[in-house]
């Protein structure tokens, strides 16, 4: 059976993708910082199978994606439990943060919180880095699929959430760079760029400000992620998903040949 690791897997998009994979007889490890949510999700997906049984289809590992040692230990635990191979990693954990970056303060300005950057960008960097190394060890053939959760804010300005926007721009840049470098090794790297999806990312009061038609059904996200996993030709894809439509957002054209050569690391 193929093996997947999903960060932020206890709820929302992570859990929805995990549910679809388990139905397809994948073994899925849910990594989440929320133990109560994660344990309940894993138990539900595992059904009547014993969580101590190595044949169980799902397990939960409490993991803070901003802590590299915790994340590395989780990857190693999954590899040991299910025979070594890790076929798909969904780097999905994230938060939206608060629109307080611009707040006026009295006296000296205080250092802004970078928790959004730590979870949404650093967590994806750590997850993708580990996925790359473990996929290189896959047998009999190295390779695998990494999908990161970027955002529509990866390609548009989101004035109220500048730090979230900055982090998600970083996720997209990471994916595009890794996808080119790792393609010869059989490791495919892609991103999804969802619009508004009614998950735990925001409170009900915030979501209620938007018309129902603005939301993207989570089923569309699942379909897009599974398509990236199943299609062996997909790498470097940035799939924007919005209210019933999906768009393949290709990298913009280079301004000239000089820039292309510089960005591709060619000296001639």
From TrEMBL:
Keywords: NADP, Oxidoreductase. The keyword Magnesium does not apply. It comes from the Eukaryota. Belongs to the short-chain dehydrogenases/reductases (SDR) family. PANTHER family: 15-HYDROXYPROSTAGLANDIN DEHYDROGENASE [NAD(+)]. This is NAD(P)-binding protein. The lineage of its organism: Eukaryota, Fungi, Dikarya, Ascomycota, Pezizomycotina.
């Amino acid at each position: 059976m193929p093996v997947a690791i999903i960060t932020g897997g206890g709820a929302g998009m992570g859990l929805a993708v995990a549910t679809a994979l388990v139905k397809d007889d994948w073994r899925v490890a849910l990594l989440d910082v929320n133990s109560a949510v994660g344990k309940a999700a894993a138990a539900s997906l595992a059904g009547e199978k014993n969580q101590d049984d190595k044949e169980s289809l799902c397990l939960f590992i409490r993991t803070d994606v901003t802590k590299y040692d915790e994340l590395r230990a989780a990857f190693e635990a999954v590899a040991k439990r299910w025979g070594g191979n890790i076929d798909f990693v969904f780097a999905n954990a994230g938060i939206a943060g608060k629109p307080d970056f611009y707040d006026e303060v009295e006296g000296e300005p205080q250092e802004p919180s970078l928790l959004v950057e730590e979870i949404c960008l650093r967590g994806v960097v750590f997850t993708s880095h580990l996925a790359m190394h473990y996929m290189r060890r896959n047998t009999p053939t190295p390779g695998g699929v990494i999908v990161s959760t970027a955002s529509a804010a990866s390609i548009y300005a989101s004035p109220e959430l500048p730090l979230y926007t900055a982090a998600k721009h970083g996720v997209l840049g990471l994916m595009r760079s890794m996808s080119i470098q790792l393609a010869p090794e059989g490791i495919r790297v892609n991103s999804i760029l969802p619009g508004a999806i009614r998950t735990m990312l925001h409170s009900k009061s915030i979501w209620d400000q938007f018309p129902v038609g603005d939301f993207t059904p989570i089923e569309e996200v699942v379909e897009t992620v599974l398509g990236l996993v199943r299609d062996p030709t997909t790498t470097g894809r940035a799939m924007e998903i919005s209210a019933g439509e999906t768009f393949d957002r290709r990298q913009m054209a280079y301004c000239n040949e000089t820039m292309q050569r510089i960005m591709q690391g060619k000296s001639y």
